[in-house]
Write a structure and sequence with these properties.
Enzyme class: hydrolase
Strand content: 5-15%
Distance between the termini: 37 Å
Function: Excises uracil residues from the DNA which can arise as a result of misincorporation of dUMP residues by DNA polymerase or due to deamination of cytosine.
Pfam family, one: UDG
Subcellular location: Cytoplasm
Number of strands: 6
Largest sheet: 4 strands, parallel
Main location: cytoplasm
Number of helices: 9
Strand order of the largest sheet: 3-2-5-6
Radius of gyration: 17 Å
Oligomer: single chain
Shape: globular
Length: 221
Amino acid sequence: MDVNIENSWKEQLVDEFEKPYFRELVDFVKTEYQTHTCFPKGSDIFAAFDSCNFDDVKVVIIGQDPYHGIGQANGLCFSVSNGIAIPPSLINIFKEIESDVNVSFPSNGNLQRWAKQGVLLLNATLTVRAHQAGSHQGKGWEKFTDAVIHSISKNKNDVVFLLWGGFAKKKGAKIDNNRHHILTSGHPSPLSANRGYWFGNKHFSKTNEHLLSTNQVPIEW
């Protein structure tokens, strides 16, 4: 099956695209996009991969599903395009970055600049119906993104995985922690952050410390 995804990922995942579940997933997504308003736009479904090729991946951040409000989702987890109001979870991410690595609050929530430095911004589910959170869960995306995580774990070394919240921690269960560096904390959503499970995790400085210790270029957050 020909999937429009960046070539280095196509090589890693070629077997996945031929599996029955993926064919069913493609049919489901096509039907959903034809019959409902869905996000992100079709050309952005694989934007996380197109923005950060396999060879460049050095950090992985795992989200749950895309934003379901009009104009928000751009295919990168937690990210919104220029001109879109910054969502609450991303505000809390930027607050932690500001206190952790002294980078001032940015003017927009577009995380493309992270992706270009080797941060894979991966949602577990890559599509969603407008205004219906979780509406495309359980349709096959989770199997696909498990395969993505497994491929990184198996074929790369010294990647930093940032697992925020219970969902991401479960998603990361198959990561080889002898080969990779895993950081966990609560989710940056207001509900979790306001209970003290997010702020002060220092994940951004810790990520860069690990990258430097393994002779990799740190991320400009």
